[in-house]
UniProtKB/TrEMBL annotation:
Domain Acyl-CoA oxidase/dehydrogenase middle: 189-282
Sorted UniProt keywords: FAD, Flavoprotein, Oxidoreductase
PANTHER family: ACYL-COA DEHYDROGENASE (PTHR42707), ACYL-COA DEHYDROGENASE AIDB-RELATED (PTHR42707:SF3)
Species: Pseudovibrio denitrificans
Domain Acyl-CoA dehydrogenase/oxidase C-terminal: 292-447
Every Adaptive response protein AidB N-terminal domain range: 15-174
Protein name per its UniProtKB record: Putative acyl-CoA dehydrogenase
Keyword ATP-binding: no
Molecular-function annotations in GO: acyl-CoA dehydrogenase activity
Family indicated by similarity: Belongs to the acyl-CoA dehydrogenase family.
Length: 551
């Protein structure tokens, strides 16, 4: 063998997939283009979505996601002379991602929904949020919180008038200066404390009134996300009880408000996003809502935040499986492409059923957000299904990410590819805004407080599912009766309800063969401990060809 041939054997690259990029992340997604309640294929929102999908699928956009996580944010507590500084420095890739998300309006739909022509603001935003989540999830934390904060600010009309105008701007402005001097703003939040966790009644941070609606706040927060936001919604105690305050990052005088950052959290994933611990040192805050009613005020943020968790986790699933489909379409073993192997087809298709149903359900929730003010059925669906959907979709993302990584073999396990980052990102949405037990308990509370809403939703699901609906609803009713006496059974009900709602949502946007495959394999009650359990009745390759562009 000559030297050239020997060199080719050791340095030439054969039987490896090309880099994953160049896909239009919107146009290649039939569920995203199904356009629930839309006006048809000429809808300008659809054209905007497709353009955004092309931008986000490009190599440069995907590389921004990598760079923002490799170059983590750094906290600078003091300047060289010992003065408090309390700033977080981000890599330029993070700012580039924020700029793209702001230009797309991912931070402002809650305000836009209140404006003329905003009747589809949440749904149109959700589709773009789904696309951007496949690029990078960490920077979307402050984007989500900014969008959700406007819902809480409705309890403080004078503050809302000022801040909503700032939120409406699609300009991302990273400069460290008072909000009134910036082209656009972002908002964060601070609720959790060391001793309290999800039980917000246990907070010890306190506020003291100094004039009218102005207070000074002292205490701490164990998790204080996106510390470079321009303002934060914070819970602190008054004599009346936990109360919500808007705390600016920098006062209008130019003085830095009393937010002393202790450290940034060293997280498993979500590396691009700065999550901090903070102490309040006479920080100035402004009352939002009624004194003592802070938890009720903050609950206005819960639904949009949880829906974003659903969208983001469904998008992570699509990102993971898309990379697995790309890899197996371009790699051969034992005489054929991996994707042509029956067992690989069934693994990919089985995962894809959960992904497709999760995406359909998440987008339906966003659609209901647009309708809830005028449609009681949409309001009931949102109230009952949101905690169940967050429970199931976010947990499914963890399993899908692991299985999709396995499809790439060793390449999936090294940091040179995206799969490791996707895998580390997957658990965050299960924890953020309420872990699994919190979701199950919230569902029980919703059932107790609004039993008519629960029954209305079951009626909707029965009608939407057709022949499978009656038996499914009977199973849910039995599980609900059990939970009335045994709170410990809440997870069983929560998962069954989520899967049933996901099946009904998938029927609205997918071919019958795909929806029926999900219904028959997920709702029949058999135990499924891993993916690849589809039998020969189902056209695995047909499922993949409908859901993904296979090269």
């Amino acid at each position: 063998m000559d030297k050239v041939s020997q060199a080719t054997m050791t340095t030439g690259v054969i039987n490896q997939a090309p880099p994953y990029c160049g896909y239009n992340l919107a146009e290649s997604d039939p569920i995203l283009l199904a356009d629930l309640g839309g006006t048809g294929s000429n809808d300008s929102a659809r054209e905007e979505l497709i353009k955004f999908g092309e931008q986000c699928g490009a190599a440069d956009a995907l590389d921004l996601g990598r760079l923002a996580n490799v170059n983590e944010p750094v906290l600078k507590t003091h300047d060289p002379y010992g003065r408090r500084l309390d700033v977080v420095e981000f890599h330029p890739s993070y700012h580039a991602l924020m700029r793209r998300s702001f230009e797309a309006g991912l931070h402002s739909a809650s305000v836009e929904s209140m404006e003329p022509g905003g009747d589809r603001a949440f749904y149109n935003r959700a589709r773009k949020y789904f696309v951007m989540s496949q690029v990078e999830g960490g920077h979307l934390c402050p984007v989500t919180m900014t969008n959700a904060s406007a819902m809480a600010l409705t309890q403080a009309p004078e503050l809302a008038e000022v801040w909503n105008e700032r939120i409406l701007s699609r300009k991302y402005d990273q400069r460290f200066r008072p909000a009134s001097q910036k082209m656009g703003v972002s908002l964060g939040m601070g609720m959790t404390e060391k001793q309290g966790g999800s039980d917000l009644r246990q907070i010890i941070t306190r506020a003291e009134k100094v004039s009218d609606d102005t207070y000074v706040i002292n205490g701490h927060k164990w998790f204080f996300s996106a510390p470079m936001c321009d303002a934060f919604l914070v819970l602190a105690k008054l004599e009346e009880g936990p109360t919500c305050f808007l705390v600016p990052r920098i006062l209008e005088s130019g003085e830095v408000n009393g937010l002393d950052f202790q450290r940034l959290k060293n997280k498993l994933g979500n590396k691009s996003n700065a999550s901090s611990e903070v102490e309040f040192n006479n920080a100035v805050g402004f009352l939002v809502g009624e004194a003592g009613k802070g938890i009720k005020t903050i609950l206005k943020m819960v639904t949009p935040t949880r829906v974003d968790c659903c969208i983001g986790s469904a998008a992570l699933m699509r990102a993971a499986i898309s990379r697995a489909v790309h890899h197996t379409s371009n790699r051969s073993a034992f005489g054929a492409r991996l994707i042509e192997k029956p067992l690989m087809q069934r693994v990919l298709a089985d995962m894809s059923l959960d992904m497709a149903a999760s995406e359909a359900l998440a987008l339906k929730l966003a659609h209901c957000m647009d309708q809830e003010g005028e449609d009681s059925q949409a309001a009931d669906f949102l109230r009952i299904i949101t905690p169940a959907a967050k429970y199931w979709i976010c947990k499914s993302a963890e399993n899908v990410a692991a299985e999709a990584m396995e499809c790439l073999g060793g390449n999936g396990y090294v940091e040179d590819h995206d799969m490791a980052r996707i895998y580390r990102e997957a658990p965050v949405n299960s924890i953020w805004e309420g872990s699994g037990n919190i979701m199950a308990l919230d569902l029980l509370r919703a059932m107790h407080r609004t039993p008519d809403s629960f029954m209305n939703v079951l009626g909707m699901l029965e009608a939407d599912l057709g022949p499978a609906g009656k038996v499914s609803v009977e199973v849910l009713q039995a599980a609900a009766r059990t939970c009335l006496e045994d709170e410990g059974g809440a997870r069983l009900l929560t998962e069954q309800l989520a899967i049933t709602a996901a099946a009904a949502a998938l029927k609205e946007v997918a071919p019958a063969a795909i929806a029926n495959a999900f219904i028959e394999t997920r709702m029949a009650g058999q135990w499924r401990s891993s993916y690849g359990m589809l039998d020969a009745r189902y056209d695995a390759m047909g499922i993949l060809e409908w859901l993904y562009p296979i090269k």
